[in-house]
Q: What sequence folds into this?
């Protein structure tokens, strides 16, 4: 029997299991230090594979839709941060200050790649433009996200125990850990692209395993510092409400802008699914660079909630778009 679209997917269940394991048996001491080193290598491999998957033909085909790309970038790096900042009087009472820091961090993240492209394909949208927009968002996020963190979260970053307060140093560390492996993978695509495509199912486990490893190390450090003792149940419920509000505003705004600007239905689909997404795959590794280990758990929690919510809601929207285009 097929699983309901409203139930969590396998990866979300794995995330929940990882958080549970880290809560019951958190890594500490020498084990935590060893996991930190393994995590850095796993994240580098993750972005290396992302680079190897990116087709240059798709980039060239998608570049002609520059108006669409500008709107996607504006939604991702302007609209979302403005919403998180402007709605502070409404959002902050619903959650703890630590979770609100995580919400602001969520707002400055780049768009996700895999799910945005998958939903665009399901809804019969502009696939080349979606690949170009989502990939460009990831690359731009390596520079823009640390800048926005320094602009919007200077006090919160210090209170959370930022690993490095120098924005330029943060950009350099993220470039070294994420961008360099990404570019290396893309440059090697002519030789390894076929292998990566043939082993897509197996390599997906590497993608997801890398994220799960980062989540485990992050929540282990947070649990050791007393995360769950400081986080009331009402704040978790408030977090769900906040994520729902942000996602609804993003979806409504992108749909309205697409129709206002006269985009085709295919381009509207691309804007809706690329402009409303936030990347768990990029957000968790970046948080490890931008914030101290003990603070990362609470900061990435909003990303995990938003991740599951965007998958469920966009799954329904993609099916509706597909029926409309088919008709």
A:
């Amino acid at each position: 029997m097929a699983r309901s679209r409203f139930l969590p997917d396998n990866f979300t269940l794995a995330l929940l299991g990882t958080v549970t394991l880290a809560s019951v048996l958190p890594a500490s001491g020498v084990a935590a230090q060893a996991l930190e080193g393994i995590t850095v290598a796993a994240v580098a491999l993750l972005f290396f594979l992302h680079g190897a998957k990116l087709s240059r033909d798709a980039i060239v085909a998608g570049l002609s839709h520059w108006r669409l790309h500008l709107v996607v970038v504006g939604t991702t790096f302007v609209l979302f941060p403005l919403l998180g900042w402007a709605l502070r009087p409404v959002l902050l009472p619903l959650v703890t200050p630590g979770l609100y820091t995580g919400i602001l961090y969520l707002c400055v993240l780049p768009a996700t790649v895999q799910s945005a492209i998958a939903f665009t394909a399901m809804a019969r949208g502009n696939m080349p433009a979606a690949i170009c927009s989502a990939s460009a968002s990831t690359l731009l996020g390596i520079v823009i996200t640390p800048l926005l963190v320094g602009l919007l979260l200077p006090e919160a970053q210090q209170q959370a125990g930022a690993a490095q307060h120098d924005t330029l140093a943060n950009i350099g560390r993220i470039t070294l850990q994420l961008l360099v492996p990404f570019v290396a993978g893309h440059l090697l695509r002519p030789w390894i692209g076929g292998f990566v495509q043939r082993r897509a199912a197996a390599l997906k486990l590497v993608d997801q395993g890398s994220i799960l490893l980062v989540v485990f190390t992050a929540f282990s450090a947070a649990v050791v510092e007393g995360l769950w003792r400081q986080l009331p149940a009402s704040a978790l419920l408030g977090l769900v409400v906040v994520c729902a509000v942000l996602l609804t505003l993003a979806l409504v705004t992108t749909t309205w802008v697409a129709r206002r600007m006269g985009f085709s239905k295919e381009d509207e689909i691309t804007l809706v699914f690329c402009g409303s997404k936030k990347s768990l795959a990029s957000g968790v590794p970046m948080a490890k660079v931008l914030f101290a280990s003990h603070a990362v758990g609470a900061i990435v929690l909003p990303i995990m909630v938003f991740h599951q919510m965007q998958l469920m809601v966009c799954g329904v929207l993609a099916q509706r778009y597909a029926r409309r285009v088919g008709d």
Remarks:
- The first helix runs from residue 10 to 24.
- Residues 15 and 212 are 6 Å apart (CA to CA).
